[in-house]
Amino acid sequence: MCSRLIIQTSKNSSLKCLERLISNHHQVRSKSVSVASDSKIEEVSEAKETAPPPEVDVNKYIHSNLMLEKNETKPQESSLSFDAIPGPRSLFLISKFWNSIPKLDSNRVIVSFIQNFLSGANFFHNILCWGGNKQFFNKFFRVYGPVVRLHGAFHSDVVLLSRPEHACNIFQHSNPYPIRSCLECIEKYRLDHKNYEQAGLFFTCGTDWKILRDTVSQPLLNGADMYYQRINDICNLFVQRVITNRNKLEEVGDNFDTELYRWYLESLFMITLRTRTGFLDNPQKKETDATAFLSALEATLRTIGKCEYGFHIWKFVETTSWKVLVKNCDAMDTILNEYVDRAVQSMQDKKDQDAAPFLQALIANQKISRSDIITILMDMVLIGTATTTHTIALLLFHLSKNTRCQKKLREEIGRFKDNVSSSDIEQMSYLHACIKEVLRISPPVPILSRVLTSDVKIMDYMIPKDTRILFASHLNSHRDEHFEEANKFKPERWMSSNADEYNIFATMPFGHGPKSCLAKEFAENQIAVLIFKICRKFHIEYDYGDIQSSHELLASPTKPLKFRFIDL
Ligand code: HEM
């Protein structure tokens, strides 16, 4: 599996810069680059080649009822070439020009630079990845059909897909170590700026990724189970803040999204580090670690969008956005290190073997370094905050517009005592249906991305290994062919006896397969407890029109969350 690429350069360029150029030359993020001093550049696969990947039964990721086209499951037979896939002709012509350059120009470093800077498909990939624009995707599919190819310079093409059967085919052909390619600015921050050995769970692949993932998943759930009482307390604190912050009309201000961030971070650090961090402390007069962390996080989430869209100029020049990103990530990194130090110290002082199972599991694993612990926690902050709070905001909105659903949910919730346990939450089937439904209508991560690890045949087209795939899964949520009255908020659909017949590839809010969201259960549980507490206490209204999902890089609600929380 080791791919080797030797590139000669006559220029005496900076090694660091070359590393970047070469690693950017390829989309496959699993590889690292080492630079030889004799001006030869070698790319070597970082994956531990000696350890073959374990056999994985791909069928377990595929829904039993799923209808596959016969020719897509069989070994590849006759097929149309990759070049036959339709796509914008202008990109095709531009790519023809750029693809001819290596033959004319011996200086491939410059070529590599230009590739990254001007690659048409990279540009589109950056815009579309993680969300892009719904109309943009729809237009491509309307004009070119269900399989669209965006030609890129130097063969860096992107294929756009959306149909569930195509997703099934992609995931079925994925190997046990899938690769995704996005959020490159965070990857660069960690590898180049912080000089960490690994970029973190979200970015790594191969056996390194498997070690991180296996170490983290179960202890995260154990931590949540162990600290249920404290999760209750943190939600109660949040409800208390709502009561304090409401105006005379019982309406919260337009900083309610930040309030949700506070709640999420307080819960996350309680569960992972067994530490109270003070995000919900009142009043927040002076600057504390919590307030500094929160403003750095908000700035980071804003800046990630600026860095990721369009051309990635920051790969070569320190742009303003890049500097802002570094400053704020550094600030979070410093505070996170302090939190971890405190948690470790407290574990040692108390000699409490059961404390912080999450942190203990990480520390106990010799293969996990201190920087891995930081990147794991940081991924949970960066990915978990936006997705979890987005889901809660959109669910509150749908409940406010569907008073029948709100009433039904309250009836279910009323059957349980206020201090809720994990088994109570498990029994609340309508609450779970509401969460599933809001994730179907407005998935916080609307686009899934993969880099193909083998050739895959979609319809009659053969798509080669290493091609980037963007899968616009959110489009299916709004198609009546997959969900009756698809645009309506109908939690009941998930409780009917027919619910099993929905195609699992028609809605994938947590992604799919081995690299799907590692915190699905954790997130659903956190959301459930907070919604439980809110609906127990308040009737919810919203007077400012329709809140939708922004479909940006990390989706956010399109309107201020000025809910009315009316005492029951
Ligand atoms: C409603 C809440 C959430 C949604 C909808 C969501 C969705 C997703 C999606 C779509 C992916 C990419 C999956 C793929 O490519 O197949 C992902 C990955 C990931 N999510 Fe979540 N997520 C949520 C909450 C969280 C939370 C709370 C955490 C952390 C505590 C988290 C941690 C991660 C991590 C670490 C990954 C990368 C996993 C890997 O590469 O192995 N997510 N999430």
Automatic annotation (TrEMBL):
Amino acids binding heme: C517
Cofactor dependency: heme
Family: Belongs to the cytochrome P450 family.
Name of the protein described by the UniProt record: Cytochrome P450
Organism placement in taxonomy: Eukaryota, Metazoa, Ecdysozoa, Arthropoda, Hexapoda
Alphabetized GO MF terms: heme binding; iron ion binding; monooxygenase activity; oxidoreductase activity, acting on paired donors, with incorporation or reduction of molecular oxygen
PROSITE patterns for this protein: CYTOCHROME_P450 (PS00086)
InterPro entries: CYP11_CYP27_families (IPR050479), Cyt_P450 (IPR001128), Cyt_P450_CS (IPR017972), Cyt_P450_E_grp-I (IPR002401), Cyt_P450_sf (IPR036396)
Keywords, in A-Z order: Heme, Iron, Metal-binding, Monooxygenase, Oxidoreductase
SUPFAM superfamilies noted in UniProt: Cytochrome P450
UniProt-listed Gene3D superfamilies: Cytochrome P450
PANTHER family noted in UniProt: CYTOCHROME P450
